[in-house]
Design brief:
mainly alpha, single chain
């Protein structure tokens, strides 16, 4: 990937996140359906609804930057989704629940890094509205990570108690 300016780097990053959020919308639905732990399943379902708003926010960022809203493939997200599809096709029960929690955390870490970097870049380039919208989503991603982490810890405590 060759990018000729910092401005284009920002646009490319927003396009990658637009792609990622759209792909994750369906993935979160799958995670919620496959996870038998009620608390974690609900965290995935809640974040799916939140992701719809994040997609809308990215569309507003495109408008703010006067750029056509389009996606740019993001191989990290594709790899996480592919890996999950393969794993979930061969596993179920507690093992799948634990795996889903881990993949949820991996995804949130990726998004936190991406939104954090783009927020700083948008601020540097003077895209104040875009920076505010990116920062808002960054906060939501941090909260989603915390929710999945707490669900995972509760799941572990329940498993320990039942042993």
């Amino acid at each position: 990937m060759t990018t000729d300016s910092t401005e284009q780097l920002l646009v490319d990053g927003v396009q990658e996140l637009y792609y990622a959020e759209k792909r994750l919308l369906d993935a979160l639905d799958t995670l919620a359906e496959q996870t038998s732990d009620e608390e974690t399943s609900q965290a995935f379902a809640d974040h799916r609804e939140e992701t719809k708003g994040q997609i809308h926010r990215l569309e507003r960022i495109f408008e703010d930057m006067d750029v056509e809203a389009q996606t740019r493939p993001e191989p990290v997200i594709d790899a996480l989704i592919q890996e999950h599809e393969e794993f979930s096709g061969e596993n179920d029960g507690e093992v799948l629940d634990r795996y889903n929690m881990a993949v949820g955390q991996k995804t949130e870490h990726y998004e936190i890094a991406a939104y954090g970097n783009l927020t700083s870049l948008a601020e540097k380039l003077g895209h104040d509205e875009a920076a505010d919208l990116l920062a808002q989503t960054l906060q939501e991603e941090e909260e989603a990570l915390e929710a999945v982490t707490q669900s995972s810890e509760s799941f572990d405590q329940q498993e320990i108690a039942s042993d």
